[in-house]
Amino acid sequence: MPAIPAPDMNEKLAGPLGDFAPAQIRAELHRMADWIADYRIGIAERAVSNDVEAGSIAASLRAVAWEEPAGMDRIMADLDDVVMPGILHWGHPAFLGYFGSTSNTPALLGEMAAAALNVSAMTWKSSPAATEMENVVLDWIRDMTGLPPGYMGVVYDTASVAVMHALAAARESACGGTRTEGMLGRPDLAPLRIYASDQAHSSVGKAAIVLGVGEMNVVRVQTDDEFRMDCNALERAIERDVAQGLTPMAVIATVGTTSTGSVDPVAEIGRICGERKIWLHVDAAYGGAFGVLPEGRWVTEGMDVADSIVVNPHKWLFVPLDFSALYLRNPQSMRDLFSLTPEYLRGAASDSSAPDYMDYGIQLGRRFRALKAWMVFRAFGRAGIESRVRENCRLAATLANLVSQEPGFALATPVNMAIVCIRYQPAGIDSETANMRNQQIVERVNATGQAYLTYTTLRGETVIRAGFGNILTTDAHVNAVWNLIRAEARRM
Ligand code: PLP
């Protein structure tokens, strides 16, 4: 066969219908590499947040004649001058809000390579390395956190999307025919019920909305003094529902709740679900990572009672947003539910033993997310991940120790993993006033731009919450944040 004549790619790259010219490609990528390096190296010197007026950034972004191409000098200047002032720096070492999603250089390199490759990991054939690396990385996460061997993983963007898929499989298992017949107009179907603790994440409710189960059918089970699901209450709720002709569809056990990091009694919940053949989904989005520590391994031990388990490496295994791993005891049930190959994709479907990940969910185009995770795990190694998780826990314990010595302050719960919940309630103020003060402390600390915290409510009490997950946070940051909290409390 005659070789296809090589066109002059330089001309195409540089032409009006192409990309940038080769020299410019190199120059701009180097400029961005420097920009990123400056950002990472200097992040601790920035204000964590800036005071911006809502709409002001959009107004500036709109005020350009974007119909005409702009030079990269101008675009980069806008990035610095317009966009950066409106960034809340989640990667700042004093950002302790939510679950700070930490970035790092290996992860950035993986993201850059994935963006350059821009492949879709929808089937094995659509990019064999993307599928096989996803496979390997998922095995590593399962093994390093101590999840049950033999469970198959699938990467989704977020735990919210993962739980929606898990509950779709649970729905099919509970009433059958949902794939083909749907749920409307079926007299054989009773309302479906999902049970989750009163501390479970809101993503459960959203999944119920999407799946046609309805938010009101998410039963919030009460928790004990340490915010763990009360299994007697769970059993009672299920029995009450069955007696009323409702169909228990799934139970969500949370390992590492959002507010306090509490851990539901998975083994006992598993027993309850096993006896009644109810799907058990374990939401270990945050807490699964604790299993990388020998002293944290208890959180994942015995999870083989679960039908599905989610772990979010973007919360606490140092893989930046987004990367969520769902593990399935019976992956075939997910495949049976979602495999639907249109004619034009038949040639892309795998004829090997490798999975076609498009068959395990609604997404067809799938980012090569595994690449950044692979870079992080290779660069830090298993030991490096373990020591970083342990360091996050040590910093949380350090803050907790400071809190427990300060009059007027108390730990609202024992410290779980790397989450500290602090209650400011000096003598002589009532609970409602204290709620206001706790909220104000957080708002005022955040307004200084020197740190970032969030607040949450535990049984009607507003508490200050600090979550550690950033690899750049040091003792000095912990002390600084604590001094800010105390100073704001004193100013009141
Ligand atoms: N589950 C728990 C326990 C969480 O804390 C969160 C988020 O904070 C989620 C699920 C949802 O995670 P995602 O943001 O990946 O959807």
Task: Please describe the topology of this protein.
Elements: H1 9-14, H2 22-42, H3 56-62, H4 72-83, H5 105-117, H6 128-145, E1 152-156, H7 159-175, H8 178-181, E2 192-197, H9 203-210, E3 218-221, H10 231-243, E4 247-254, H11 266-276, E5 279-283, E6 308-311, H12 313-316, E7 324-328, H13 331-338, H14 370-404, E8 409-411, E9 419-424, H15 431-447, E10 454-458, E11 461-467, H16 475-491
Parallel strand pairs: 2-3, 2-4, 4-5, 5-6
Antiparallel strand pairs: 1-7, 6-7, 8-9, 9-11, 10-11
Helix pairs in contact: 5-14, 6-14, 7-9, 14-16, 15-16
Pyridoxal-5'-phosphate binds at residues 99, 158-160, 201, 203, 254, 256-258, 283, 285-286, 312, 324.
Structure report:
With 492 residues, the protein is an alpha/beta fold. It folds into three domains: 22-89, dopa decarboxylase, N-terminal domain; 120-367, Type I PLP-dependent aspartate aminotransferase-like (Major domain) (Aspartate Aminotransferase, domain 2, 3-Layer(aba) Sandwich); 381-491, Aspartate Aminotransferase, domain 1, CATH 3.90.1150. Helices cover 43% and strands 12% of the residues. The protein has 16 helices and eleven strands. The chain has helices spanning 9-14, 22-42, 56-62, 72-83, 105-117, 128-145, 159-175, 178-181, 203-210, 231-243, 266-276, 313-316, 331-338, 370-404, 431-447, 475-491; strands spanning 152-156, 192-197, 218-221, 247-254, 279-283, 308-311, 324-328, 409-411, 419-424, 454-458, 461-467. Strands 1-7-6-5-4-2-3 form a seven-stranded mixed β-sheet, with helices on both faces. α5 (105-117) runs antiparallel to α14 and α6 (128-145) packs parallel to α14. The longest helix has 35 residues, at 370-404. The protein is globular and about 75 Å long. The mean pLDDT is 95. The structure holds pyridoxal-5'-phosphate (PLP). Pyridoxal-5'-phosphate binds at residues 99, 158-160, 201, 203, 254, 256-258, 283, 285-286, 312, 324.
